Amino acid sequence: MLYDLKHNPASRRILTNIYNHQDLSEMALYPCAYSMTFNEEVPEEPKTTGNPELDQMVSEGQGALEEMRRLNDSIQDAAISAQIERLSQVSDKIFQAGAEGSHSAAPDPQVHELLSAHHPEAAAGL
Asked: What's the count of helices (H) and strands (E) in the chain, helices before strands?
């Protein structure tokens, strides 16, 4: 079971009994819990662009977006909340395009222009 959890965590066959069968004769009642199934999510490896400045900017930006979304949950005005969510979605696309664009031969010109205006050191690596 431990091997499968480490090497094949998505398997549906990782099962274990949680009581000792030899003790059944000594039990007044059979155990209520028969077995348990593990469902382990494997975290994704952090993506890198090869440009430390750009990686840091993307990481900080994604952290800021998570905080913006968290704070947006407490906003009562639906119209303002929707605008903030839209801003969050657009910003997320910009960070994704910046990170993905660094791997292509020709990065997105709009992303490059945005980075050049605000983070020239990160744009230089594109």
From this structure: 5, 2
Residue 125 and residue 51 in contact, taking contact as beta carbons nearer than 8 Å: yes
- 3-43 pLDDT, tens digit per residue, is 887 788 777 777 776 677 777 788 777 766 666 666 667 67
The size of the chain, in residues, is 126
- Whole-angstrom CA distances from 108 to 26, 50, 112, 115 are 70, 17, 6, 11
Please indicate, yes or no, whether the overall pTM of this predicted structure exceeds 0.85.
Answer: no
CA distances from 38 to 5, 6, 20, 35, 76 (A): 8, 12, 19, 10, 38
In whole angstroms, how far apart are CA 23 and each of 4, 29, 31, 37, 124?
A: 27, 11, 10, 22, 68
Backbone angles phi, psi at 103, to 5 degrees: -90, -15
What's the average model confidence in pLDDT over 69-87? 90
The percentage of the chain sitting over the pLDDT mark of 90, rounded to a whole number, equals 6
